[in-house]
Amino acid sequence: MLRILGRASSINVRKVLWTCVELDLPYEREDWGSGFRSTASAEFLALNPNAMVPVIVDGDFVLWESNAICSYLANRYPRHDLLPAAPRERALVEQWMGWQATELNNAWRYAFMARVRNSPEHTDQAAIVLSEAQWNRCMRLLDRQLERTGAFVSGQRFSLADIVLGLSVNRWRLTPMQRPELPAVNAYFERLGERAGFRLHGANGEP
Fold first, then answer.
1. Model pTM?
2. Given this model, what pLDDT does residue 183 score?
3. Which residues form the GST C-terminal domain (predicted)?
């Protein structure tokens, strides 16, 4: 059976858990990370030298990085609705997954660590304000994309891009900060709420 290593409250672990719900895929999850078994242990570092969750173990195959894991699972079973086979449609899904992992994640990191994690290393007010502004800029960009499609991030069909970005939208909504009114993002959040995987692992009270 597929093993998923990582605490269930981690946003990146929740991407993988939601993907498993969409695939109706059984798994065993093990608690690793903050508050649980240390990812700095030799046992964990042998699986992921970055000491980060999630990691999956699928038979003799080990994989880390949450977006790569989601893509692997959608290919493994396979689910071309989640990750299209056609090159152009697939590229659009991967484009938005890449944007989430780079531009969007880099924008919110400082503000989230300050506002939600109360990190003593993230108390620079100017840096917090800048991070919030960059985060909101990214969310406005997402709002424009959703306004164009009228449905999901990469087009009319739900895909892996919506799993990774749906969790990001949830985090943005739950972080105590000033946010612009984004009607298309709000409508998108409601659409995602129709999916069991999002209710379990997205809009489940965890930012």
1. 0.96
2. 98
3. 86-207
Establish if 110 belongs to a structural domain: yes
What pLDDT shows up at residue 29? 98
Residues 193 and 126 in one domain: yes
Spatial separation of the C-alpha atoms in residues 119 and 207, rounded to whole Å? 15
Residues 34 and 113 in one domain: no
Query: Do 135 and 42 share a structural domain?
Result: no
Grade residue 37 by pLDDT with cuts at 50, 70 and 90: very high
Looking at the structure of the chain, the number of domains it has is: 2
Q: For residue 19, what are the domain limits?
A: 2-76
DSSP one-letter code for 63: E
Q: Is the link from the previous residue into 54 a cis peptide, with omega within 30 of 0?
A: yes
Query: What's the whole-number average pLDDT of the chain?
Result: 97
Residue 111: which CATH number? 1.20.1050.10
Indicate the residue among 53, 76, 99 that finishes a domain.
76
Residues 31, 88 contacting (CB under 8 angstroms): no
| Contact present, 53 and 65 (Cβ < 8 Å) | no
Is 64 strand, coil or helix?
strand
Cβ contacts of residue 156 below 8 Å, gap of 6+? 149, 150
Of the pLDDT bands very low, low, confident and very high (cuts 50, 70, 90), residue 66 is: very high
8 A C-beta contact, residue 206 and residue 12: no
